[in-house]
Specification:
heterodimer; A: seven-stranded mixed β-sheet; 11 helices; 21 strands; B: mainly alpha
Chain lengths: 453, 401
């Protein structure tokens, strides 16, 4: 039984630099890194040290508090460095990649004959498990729990986000294989949520063993948290797992071939990219070859992910584990004079959800936005603006305030189990008082994880 | 602009941490951010941010107040010359002899504005320096609202005390902009109203510089006499006599005496249009406030226990500060309800109570101030129940599942 969800609230930020629909390839990266901070709340325990030889699929580290959850190398080569930060926290595990990738070869029995425990063990041992994440808390799923449902969002609605239909096109079989794997893990439904307006790819529409739901609306309609809220809302004590379509294909490949093939397609986007396009590369790749000769200007910010939720990286940094997108936008570290570009300017260069700027006059014009906060942080004054871009039956400002004062009862009552930082990213964008809402929500989820899970 | 930028950059080190003027950094920052949006970039979370900020929001409210300000200036002059007739100034028409009227109005308003901003900003800057943050923009609006809700004859020293009281007790003790419970401007007015009632109400304060013996009540002041049982004390024989003195047109246009900025419904409506179009004020609050006022007046019409109650609803809301309160005061997002459902309840009750206080309590001929302050206090309670309903919905889902 498929559901149709129509969302009225939300905001599509019109940015310049959408990727052109061509799949290109670049030379294999010389270095690749897995960044433990990509896996929130993870404490890694290294299994390799600098100088060790690894193959694609070799374990690099595991979760210190649950050694079943392993993290593997996406390429073969030599471990170059384990980069540590403050308090000796491991930031990056860098691998010098071979030109030709050598794979750990496993033999995977036919899926039909495998029990849930066998599938689970295969996922854990092969290092595929980190692709399976959970709500609430938005972390890697706990393999000892059973989810009430599994969600796959077949589209990404974030600004300049890659077109999933384009990316998965032609990989129907692998995608189906991934779904078959997931179906072993839950007694509940697998929800595949496709974009209502538009023609979803055959890989999605022909998928079997799933409930296909049509989602209409602006961003954050593509966020799995919003979809869960409207299709099968989470209550306290319940768990839902979710997987990205591209990651599901990697799972499907492993169950077909026995190899951890971490190649994926990422979109290189943003107003500072000369030729925005799709690039075939690999998880954790070094960015330098991807962006080489394709960037205008020097004073730019590289983001692994989209502009709302991505992580700031160096030009020679590494792609985040779950990211399908690299965005390059101008830095905003200049003074802006009040009458020409500041708070009293006409403001045709600013994209605003409020009527205080003439954005509503600009039709479908696309904007080149920089990283300036466009104002200073203040106490909350304006009310109602967050609700306009937050399509859940939750009061965002009350929730954020409850988190700020660390009131766990209030957080639970106000629905913290249903949200992830990314769901409130637009609230952060529109906030007149420039409060960093996503990091507040993250802190709240961490408290809940510690106290209530 | 390069040269201004250079000045800012040259001065910056003097106010930097460890430098001589370190303590004054908030003041420096407040002034430079007026001229330049700072270099501050995002670090975590969303890498791009909406163009809107509190400065632009507050600026819009100030722009929306300008029609009331200009009208009030003419009005202050007009009523002065009504009380002090001279041969040069024609007071038979509101718009005649603009020169002297504006000139007098300016002489009333300008000192008020200077005192209001001067005292308020001084208090704000002291707190900014103590707390080490730059000036928050809230007072930019309050500082202009306060002169507009004062009678023309209010002594400046009283305004100074009221502003200091309102900023200190009304706002800063709670934590500053965004944290106050009651509207700052109305706190200032309420303070004066109770501390110096003879300077804030009655028959001798509305017509600027009015001579002894001249009785100049407001329309509402005259209406309030109807509530007395002693018919001899009524200002009019019946309500139709009242409406022929204060016609519907005069009431809407604002050709009636009252506080400086509140008299003209039309000027307030221009401001309302700006606030609603830009979304700075909540249409939910504003619309339901007027609905509440009209509903209460209509109820009174039906009841008709005294002549006051017989005043037409559309006439009733045009008098006094109902429009000014409904457009600029009750819509203050900090003190209003913060939930969309709550906003309807909050606004409606605000309007409802305004008219109720007007008619029932002759001690307060104008009920808007009291009603809004009361609803400010009640707003968190309204929100509490709205939010609890949401919480219950969520718990119910758990039970049915």
């Amino acid at each position: 039984m498929s559901k149709t969800i129509k969302l009225r609230k939300g905001l599509d930020i019109r940015l310049l630099g959408e990727a052109e629909k061509v799949k290109t390839s670049v030379d294999a990266p010389e270095t690749v890194a897995i960044k433990p901070p990509d896996f929130h709340l993870l404490t890694p325990k290294m299994e390799v040290k600098a100088g060790d030889k690894v193959k694609a699929g070799s374990v690099l580290f595991h979760n210190k508090y649950n050694d079943k959850i392993k993290f593997v190398s996406p390429v073969s080569g030599e471990v170059a460095d384990v980069v540590r930060g403050a308090k000796r926290r491991i930031l990056e595990v860098v691998i010098n990649a071979d030109a030709e990738i050598q794979y750990e070869q496993a033999t995977v029995p036919a899926l039909e004959n495998m029990s849930r425990d066998e599938v689970l063990k295969t996922l854990l041992d092969s290092g595929l498990w980190p692709f399976v994440r959970q709500r609430p808390i938005d972390i890697i799923a706990d393999p000892d729990e059973t989810p009430k449902a599994i969600f796959i969002s077949a589209f990404n609605s974030a600004p300049l986000a890659p077109d999933m239909d384009f990316i998965v096109h032609g990989q129907d079989e692998l995608f189906q294989k991934g779904i078959d794997v997931l179906s072993k893990l839950t007694d509940g439904k697998i929800h595949l949520n496709v974009k209502g307006n538009g023609a979803p790819d055959a890989a999605f529409m022909n998928a079997k063993g799933v409930q296909i739901n049509n989602i209409y609306g602006k961003h954050p309609a593509g966020n799995v948290g919003i979809q869960i809220h409207h299709i099968d809302p989470l209550n306290k004590g319940e768990v839902i797992w979710f997987v990205n379509p591209q990651d599901l294909i990697i799972i499907g490949k492993y169950f077909s071939t026995g190899m951890f093939d971490a190649s994926k397609i990422v979109a290189l986007t943003g107003s500072e990219v000369s030729n925005p396009k799709y690039i075939k590369t690999i998880i954790g790749t070094n960015l330098s070859k991807l962006v080489e000769g394709n960037i205008d200007g020097d004073n730019v910010r590289y983001i692994s992910g989209n502009v709302l939720t991505g992580e700031k990286v160096e030009p020679n940094g590494y792609l985040g584990y779950y990211d399908n997108q690299i965005t390059v936008i101008p830095e905003g570290n200049q003074l802006k004079f009040v009458l020409t570009k500041g708070w009293m300017a006409p403001g045709f260069d600013k994209f605003s959800n409020s009527m205080l700027f003439p954005t509503w006059l600009t039709g479908s014009k696309k904007f080149r936005l920089d990283t300036n906060t466009n104002g200073e942080e203040r106490g909350f004054v304006v009310t109602g603006e967050m609700e306009k871009v937050f399509p859940m039956d939750i009061y965002p400002m009350y929730l954020v305030k409850a988190i700020m004062v660390n009131d766990i009862d209030a957080m639970e009552n106000l629905g913290i189990y249903e949200v992830a930082p990314e769901d409130l990213a637009l609230c952060e964008y529109v906030c007149t008082s420039k409060v960093n809402i996503q990091s507040v929500v993250r802190d709240g989820l961490d408290v809940i994880y510690e106290e209530c899970m | 602009m390069k040269f201004l930028e250079r000045i800012v950059e040259n001065m910056e080190p003097k106010f930097a941490k460890g430098a001589k003027l370190e303590k004054l950094h908030p003041v420096f920052e407040s002034f430079t951010t007026l001229a330049f949006t700072p270099k501050e970039v995002t670090h975590k979370g969303s890498h791009i941010r909406d163009g809107v900020d509190l400065k632009r929001t507050m600026m819009t409210v100030i722009i929306a107040m300008i029609p009331c300000l200009l009208f009030g200036m003419v009005g202050a002059g007009h009523w002065h010359y009504v009380a002090n007739p001279t041969t040069d100034v024609d007071v038979t028409s509101f718009w005649a002899s603009m020169g002297p009227k504006i000139w007098y109005g300016l002489g009333v308003l300008l000192p008020l504005i200077i005192v209001s901003y001067g005292v308020g900003l001084t208090v704000e800057f002291i707190f900014a320096i103590i707390k080490g943050h730059s000036l928050h923009e809230g007072f930019l609006v309050s500082g202009l609202l306060i002169p507009l809700i004062m009678p023309a004859d209010v002594p400046l020293w009283m305004v100074a005390i009221a502003v200091a009281f309102a900023v200190l007790i009304g706002k800063e003790v709670f934590g500053g902009t965004g944290m106050n419970v009651v509207n700052v401007a109305l706190t200032a007015r309420a303070f004066l109203f109770f501390a110096y009632p003879t300077s804030m109400s009655g028959n001798s304060v509305w017509f600027g510089g009015q001579p002894d013996g001249f009785s100049g009540p407001t329309a509402l002041g005259e209406l309030a006499t109807f509530t007395s049982d002693d018919q001899a004390s009524w200002a009019f024989q019946n309500i139709s006599e009242f409406t022929s003195k204060y016609t519907m047109e005069a009431s809407w246009m604002g050709y009636i005496p009252g506080s400086i900025g509140e008299t003209s419904a039309v000027a307030c409506l221009i401001g309302a249009a700006i606030l609603l179009f830009t979304g700075v004020a909540s249409w939910r609050v504003m619309v339901s406030f007027f609905a509440g006022g009209l509903a209460m007046s209509a109820l009174f019409n039906v009841w008709g226990a005294n002549e006051f109650m017989l005043l037409e609803p559309l006439h009733m809301i045009a008098l006094g500060g109902f429009f000014f309160g409904g457009v600029f005061m009750i819509t203050d997002p900090v003190t209003a309800s913060q939930t969309n459902t709550g906003k309807f309840i909050y606004g409606f009750l605000g309007g409802f109570l305004s008219i109720m206080i007007r008619v029932f309590n002759p001690a307060y001929p104008e009920g808007v101030m009291m009603a809004i302050l009361f609803m400010n206090v009640m707003a968190p309670l309204i929100d509490h129940y709205v939010v609890q309903a949401n919480v219950k919905r969520r718990l119910k889902r758990l039970k049915t599942a």
